[in-house]
């Protein structure tokens, strides 16, 4: 039972080293105003990331609960079961032929 407790303690101590970070990106659309002139409208799109030492950042936006009054962010306990696995950028593969087909 002791090894399990140690591994659980290690996991919880690693979790405490993690932090949440927020970035705000903007989605913009061009619309025409009453005079027919183009007008740019932008909306903020906040994104929340979990950043742990030695591991890739993982976007948490869809898994967190945000209190709209205080802005406080909480992570539901079940979120840890459904989080995607992050991977370093060096392991991300890009296939040129698929990109050229989209252009």
TrEMBL record:
- Which superkingdom is the protein from? Eukaryota
GO cellular component terms, semicolon-separated: mitochondrial inner membrane peptidase complex
Q: Short name of one Pfam family for this protein?
A: Mitochondr_Som1
Q: Which InterPro entries match?
A: Mitochondr_Som1
Q: Output this protein's name.
A: Uncharacterized protein
Natural source organism = Postia placenta MAD-698-R-SB12
